[in-house]
Design goal:
Helix content is 33%, strand content 31%. The protein is an alpha+beta fold. Strand 18 and strand 19 (340-345) form a beta hairpin. The chain is built from eight helices and 19 strands. Strands 1-4-5-7-8-11-12 form a seven-stranded mixed β-sheet, with no helix packed on it. It has a seven-stranded antiparallel β-sheet with strand order 2-3-6-9-10-13-14, with no helix packed on it. A three-stranded mixed β-sheet has the order 16-19-18. It folds into three domains: 4-61 and 74-132, no CATH class; 139-266, Jelly Rolls (Sandwich); 273-345, Phage tail protein beta-alpha-beta fold (3-Layer(bab) Sandwich). The radius of gyration is 29 Å and the shape is elongated.
């Protein structure tokens, strides 16, 4: 068997080693001994295996073997072949040769280092790239909560999480560019200084009103709670709409858009800590909750994301909201760590 000093004591280490050398029968026997030695080992293995499966990572291709049993004479040839295969990977004394032990140790070190580096990249790179991309923005809200800004002209801007904006105030106009995310505007009236908000190719122009501009999976959306706003597509002169309170427009493409109505209280309800949705894809709802969660929420199945959902959820209690969604659709919530949650089929 493997040198005791090299035998892992964690399921997460075993799963890496077994994937790295799936044909090593000696390694598999050592794993089985470790697995059967303690009930805690079996529980640890089950939890780690389920986590890998939920994340869509391929686990070891072998199955745990049942206790040895007597075989008929007709099976002897198979046993001889297995014995020869085992001899290749182990010495005559049943221990791994020195070169195999050294390779084993190197693989452990490399695997652990690679996994650590991968985790650092996965959880640090998005945030890092976010700050680099919007390094020049005037205001950035990277926290999982709303941020309220009072501008010099008396207007107020409420930023959703993961939102960045540029602000340019002059004597002739007030211009805001949304670089990312969603923002709700309460505009101070000034007939001589129009208030203009730009998001990608969509321009919203007002004199004094309250409205929301956000980005969704399908494109940019503008919704009004007070006054009138004029929304134009900057690259399509023929695309221009005027919105009244309770009305919204979603731009699906450069030529296509969709008008709709909704209760005023439902518009930008995230300002009060709520998410109100009507017949939306579950994936889109979870993505919105994810903005208010200090970590990452994953959905393991594509068809789960496509389920339709209607309801009201508290954004300051993302775990409770996810459990509510899971109960409605017969799903399972798995917390891999305080910062990683997986929503999957049972």
């Amino acid at each position: 068997m493997t040198d005791e000093l090299l035998i892992p004591n964690k399921a997460s280490e075993w799963i890496v080693l077994l994937n790295d050398d799936p044909d090593n029968l000696s390694l598999q026997r050592d794993f089985q001994s470790w697995h059967e030695k303690d009930i805690k080992h079996r529980e640890d293995w089950k939890e780690v295996s389920q986590t890998w499966h939920l994340l869509g990572i391929v686990g070891p291709s072998f199955e745990l073997k049942s206790p040895a049993k007597k075989v008929s004479q007709s099976d002897s040839l198979i046993n001889q072949k297995l014995s020869k295969r085992a001899t290749i990977s182990s010495s005559s004394s049943g221990h791994l040769p020195y070169s195999a032990k050294a390779g084993f140790a190197r693989r452990v070190t490399r695997a652990v280092g690679f996994m650590t580096l991968a985790l650092v990249i996965v959880f640090s790179l998005p945030q890092f790239s976010y700050h680099v991309k919007y390094f020049g923005a005037d205001f950035v809200n990277s926290k999982p909560e709303v941020r309220v800004l009072d501008l010099e002209d008396g207007s107020r801007v409420t930023l959703a999480p993961e939102t960045a904006i540029d602000v340019k105030l002059s004597e002739k106009e007030r211009r805001i560019t949304i670089l990312s995310g969603a923002a709700f505007f309460e505009v101070s009236k000034n007939k001589t200084r129009p208030f203009i908000v730009e998001k990608e190719n969509i321009q919203t122009k007002v004199l004094g009103t309250a409205f929301l501009v956000d980005e969704q999976d399908t494109g940019v959306r503008v919704a009004v709670t007070e006054g009138l706003v004029q929304v134009n597509h900057m690259k399509q002169d023929t695309v221009s709409v005027q919105l009244k309170p309770g009305e919204s427009v979603a731009f699906l493409s450069s030529h296509d858009y969709k008008l709709s109505k909704r209760p005023i209280d439902d518009i930008a309800a995230w300002r009060a800590g709520y998410l109100k949705v009507r017949d939306q894809p579950l994936g889109s709802v979870v993505d919105q909750i994810d903005h208010f969660f200090n970590g990452h929420i994953f959905i393991s199945n594509t068809d789960v994301r496509e389920k339709r959902l209607t309801g009201v959820f508290k954004l300051d209690q993302p775990r409770k909201s996810l459990r509510g969604i899971a109960s409605l659709h017969g799903l399972e919530v798995t917390e891999v760590s305080p910062w990683v949650i997986i929503l999957s089929k049972k």
